[in-house]
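Sequence only, no structure available. Ideas?
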Amino acid sequence: MKYLYCLVSIVLLGGNNSKDLVFSTGYEADEVTSGLEKDLPEAKDAVSRSGTVSRGGKFSICHKIANAKEYISYNAHRAESTTMHHRASRYSEGDHFRYQFSVYLPANWEVDSRESVDIFWQFKRFEGGPDVFVAVKGSDIVVRSNGLNNRRQDPLIKNYKTGRWYDFRFDILWSTGAEGQLKAFIKSGDEKEYSEVVSFSGANIQNAKDNSAYLKWGIYKPDFDLSRLKNARVIYHDEISVTKL
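Reply:
I predicted one. Tokens follow.
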């Protein structure tokens, strides 16, 4: 396992407010912190702090993979940041959180086969795959939920545009039962207000084990062998926050 530390600005807040910000980064700080670690491939350019593309402030985080062995980590093509060791942003059965993050697909991003998805956000279990993930699939962006006995996939954006920022907001009440809820909201470009694009009830986690899930973002392409592309995949993230509701 290869660990590198990220250039980030992390805000940790607490209290008894109805809405508590527990994690936030906009990549503006110029110091190395241990708040975020990355499980990275050997490629030196798999992750970088960008000062040319940003959603807020001056900086964002850039992840890159290519169809080459130096971009393989844990037997798959991936370059991801994680909150694995940030306990306040972990979730368990009954927790209600708001997650916000912004994603930028550069203008030269190519539409790939729908069989070779690009996963750019995961609600990941320590002992298994993600409960929920967000991915580019062909010309669409989708959310897939692997809740207990309630697996489903929903479109978030059809025919996405490159060269623009998309802002995502997920309000999720985590549960293995019928009381679970997931609502997804999106805005893009210069839009001021979020639009609700997906809402469903029911199980959205795979099991009720406490404190066993965390966040991952970057790019993970599990089926690069099914891709029709030869060029590298590059994606940017910015303005990431987690709020307990």
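The chain has one domain: 3-244.
Hope that gets you unstuck.
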